[in-house]
Amino acid sequence: MRPALELAGVTKRYGGFTAVGDLSFEVKPGAILGFLGPNGAGKTTTLRMILGLIAPTSGELEVLGERDGRRVRGRIGFLPEERGLYRRMTPVGAIAFFASLKGVPEAEAKRRARRLLEENGLAQAADRQIRELSKGMSQKVQLLSAIAHEPELVILDEPFSGLDPVNQQALEGLIRGLAQRGATVLFSTHVMQHAERLCDQVVLLAGGRKVFDGNVADACSAAPRTLVLEGPFGCEALAGAPGVDSVHAEALDDGRTRLTAALSSGAPVQAVLKAAFDRNLEIASLELKQPHLHDAFIALTGPGEG
Amino acid sequence: MTRTFRIAAREYMAFVRTVGFWLSICLMPLGLLSVMFFSGMALRSAPTPRIAIVDLTPGAHQASALGAAAASGKPFAAIVVAAPPGDYTTPAAAGATVRPYLSGDRTTPSGDKLDAVAIVRGSAVDPSLDLWTRNINEPALQSRLSDALAAAARDARLRKAGLTPSQIDALDAAQPMVTQYSPRSRAGAVSFADRLPAIAGFAMGIVLWSLILTGAGILLNSVIEEKQNRILEVLLTSASAPEIMGGKILGAAAVTATALVVWVTVAFIVFGSANPALIAQLAALFISKGLIFYFLLYFVGGYLMYATLFTTIGAFCETPREAQTLLGPLMIVLTIPILFMGQAVTRPDAPLLQTLSWVPPFTPFLMAARAATGPPPWQVAGTAALMFATTAVELYVAGRAFRTGALASGRFDFGVFLAGITGRGERA
Fold first, then answer.
1. At what angle do helices B320-346 and B192-228 cross, to 10 degrees?
2. Run of H or E including B104
3. Which of A48, A76, A86 sits opposite B231 (nearest CB)?
4. How far is CA B369 from CA B80, B372, B374, in A?
5. Between A69 and which of A63, B159, B359, B398 could a Cys-Cys bridge form, CB atoms 3.0 to 4.6 Å apart?
6. How large is the ipTM?
7. Are A80 and B238 an interchain contact pair (Cβ–Cβ within 8 Å)?
8. Which of B147, B167, B154, B100 is nearest to B125 (CA)?
9. pLDDT tens track for B118-171
């Protein structure tokens, strides 16, 4: 199956500054891709190149089978990072206007706008001016404006920023719904939890370069599992234990110490625990922590990022 | 094209649905009428000035003529009161006498506050006038008294020369009849109807100037708002830069056209009821003499030129303050046609005016003002061609720059602006 999106060696330079360097990845149709990276990693620049708003300095990209995103405008939905709508328009008017620009006939666009607003709990606000709505409601309206034309590729730039937890959860549901309908969803974020819950694929960017491309499980495996022990002992308690790469000690208020041991890839946890018990450590608590995307991100980009 | 029309329709509806738009449209003619009405009322309601006349000429024959002149005429008729007692023999003495009265410290024996004192010296045939006034910026009184004194002196000289009063009256009645003729006048003698085209041309230039700047201003604010809200970025993912620019320009043009229709309708109703013949003459002028064609030609050219410029500037600015900085020099340039439009009526063939008509930013206004006086066809064709060629180049450059500006963030950056207009910015 042809990828919905493919980038090959894409680079964007502004004078002597490389915003995006040699970026390559592809996204299968219907997948949810998380585009992750700290601020200034090159996420927005990449999204703008995909949309055809700016041209890459070098490299090639293919969007829905076209080499220029502008040729498939009508098949793409886009939510920018900084949000804004016509403040005096109604939600129905705004959604229908943007859908009509994407080729949906006006009457149908209005019908869809009302249906979407109803489905997302905004039926009461459908005919009020947007300036009268809360920030969360306005953001929802803008997202609906980006998808009312039922695009094949949905690009969301930091869609979760500024939303309260309830609306973040609702947005996650909406993104899943888009993918279930068959749309390919690409969203950028620097909050890893959303990506971890939603994404089939993640691409990690740092300093304009790709540092990881794969699924969440593979990304997480890039970070070590950790065994956390608390008790009246020091760093030396786990020194030389089998399967332990490094140990970090943290003094607690009650006089005890928290040891965080990074385990080697594939090392059996039992062997580490056995070594601890063999040394007669007075363990007050222990916890085995599986790595999360956040840990993987730190591991892949270095502690200075994110 | 559909997208262009949709953007235009949204732009149009966004303005015409607001109460503010209709208020501003109605306020324009209402404001003009109010200014005319209230300025007249202010003049009528102003306190009537009081003047004292001191005639020091032998026989004091001038006082009655000056009194009659002061007490009649426009814009006000003064009340002549008795002069306060005192020494008027020399200018210095007269000054000392009238100062307390004119400064309001004293009133005359009859209880009047004085606004002016006219002191006539010399003789009946060679008089001079010292006019003391409280209001130094009011020229009408001095002008009327001067004319009256000149006429009285003339009569005195004629009488001294031996003419009888009836002969002097006959002399006054024998004024030469002056008739102005021109090849431009069909009837030969020049009438108001012949002067009307030049007046209409001047008015057309002023209306065009106002309309074009109003439309361009609407566009500027609209683009700045969209840039501030990042709506432009979303629009660019839905339509091309030329489609967005085209839609916005078309929408604002429809808004200005609506304003024009309202103003013309109001003008027809007001002037039509007061002077139906004038309306008929104007209609004939605009339709049968083709002024409407010139109006449309220069409106399209001028509007496109300035609307494109203002739209592009708006795309690079996130606040109206930034736009004002950029527009400052442009607004100074735009005052030039206003200064020269009056000449288009009185001196349509002035070389400087003709030269300025060839400068594309001035062409729409100056040629519109000259149109009614029949400029040579080669000048009409040449200036129009140059205007549209400039507009085409501007549209090409602005189309490329618009996208760069729309995607740029932060404060206005002259480097980005230059890159945009030279095509070194982002994708066009």
1. 170
2. none
3. A86
4. 47, 7, 10
5. A63
6. 0.81
7. no
8. B154
9. 999 998 889 999 999 988 888 888 899 999 999 999 988 999 899 998 988 888
Q: Which of B30, B29, B32 is nearest to B260 (CA)?
A: B29
**Residue A198 near residue A37, CB atoms below 8 Å:** no
pLDDT digits (tens, 9 = 90+) for A161-183: 888 888 888 889 999 999 999 99
Task: Please state, in angstroms and rounded to a whole number, the distance separating the CA atoms of residues B347 and B341.
Answer: 10
| Contact status, residue B231 vs residue B7, Cβ threshold 8 Å | no
Beta bridge partners of A248: A260
Contacts of B152 (CB under 8 A, 6+ apart): B61, B62, B65, B66, B124, B127
A78:B427 CB<8 A: no
Pairing mode of beta strands A32-36, A184-189: parallel
Out of A76, A86, A101, the one facing B3 most closely (by C-beta) is A101
Q: For chain A, where are the E strands, in sequence order?
A: 5-14, 17-27, 32-36, 58-63, 76-79, 153-157, 184-189, 201-206, 209-214, 226-231, 244-251, 257-263, 285-289
Give dist(CA B316, CA B228) in Å, integer.
Answer: 10
What lies within 8 Å, CB to CB, of B172 at 6+ separation is none
Backbone angles phi, psi at B408, to 5 degrees: -70, 145
On whether the CB atoms of residues B383 and B367 are closer than 8 A, the answer is: yes
Give B269-278's long-range contacts (Cβ < 8 A, gap of 24+).
B270/B29, B270/B33
Structure token digits, residue A217: 């499980």
In this complex, do A54 and B407 lie within 8 Å of one another by their Cβ atoms?
A: yes
DSSP category for residue B130:
E
CB B44 within 8 A of CB B110: no
Residue A234 · residue A247 · CB < 8 Å: no
Report the distance separating Cα B238 and Cα A72, nearest Å.
10
Show the tokens assigned to B54.
């001191």
CA-to-CA dists, residue A292 to A107, A165, B244, angstroms: 46, 20, 44
**Is the Cβ pair B238, A98 closer than 8 Å?**
yes
Q: Do A53 and B230 touch (CB under 8 A)?
A: no
Q: Which residues of B touch A70 (CB under 8 A)?
A: 240
Note if the pTM is more than 0.90. no
Nearest CA to CA, how far is A78 from chain B (Å)? 7
Rounded Cα gap, residues A112 and A99, in angstroms: 9
User: Integer distance in angstroms from the first to the last C-alpha of chain A?
Assistant: 34
> Strand pairing partners for A135?
none
